[in-house]
């Protein structure tokens, strides 16, 4: 097995390299790679730039990393500041820092504890967030659990179980007016829906619960619905 091991690519400080097939790729300084990369681990701890695509088991960005291409990886984690120009295909995507993704996101699990911007659609089995995010297209997941800490935006939401709730501000209540914890979207459609702090044009589902601080133009439901007195729903229709 040892004979099959490829060489590592390590850049400490300033450096530049072409792409290729490696065991591990580690950028600890201000390194630039021109070309596609295939490796087990892509680890950026500095201010690394990759002008190409990445195929890896794990991609980890702890510094200020930029990838101007697509990513196919088992695990992607961002603890620093990442700019990903293309699409991501993964099993697990975890964002604890700040991450901007230019294309679409597709995988098994997405977890956001920081701040994320996704330019296209986000399709995943699980979408769990306690951060702030913007999605330019459709968010589609079997299970959606969103804890709102600030203003989030998404074009449309579809899923089986959708739970969106506001986190309390404690004693610093004036922050709620400065940084409103709310989600803005056009359409939410799912089986079981619970919402707090949501502004939407249409909410449609089997069982729909509109909690506090919501502004909804139209609620359509098949089985049951309830609306909190602290929310505004212009029209509610049983289908």
TrEMBL record:
Protein name: Cytoplasmic protein
A Pfam family it matches: Bactofilin
InterPro entries xref list: BacA/B
Taxonomy of the source species: Bacteria, Bacillati, Bacillota, Bacilli, Bacillales
Signal sequence residues: none
Family according to the record: Belongs to the bactofilin family.
PANTHER family on file: HYPOTHETICAL CYTOSOLIC PROTEIN, POLYMER-FORMING CYTOSKELETAL PROTEIN
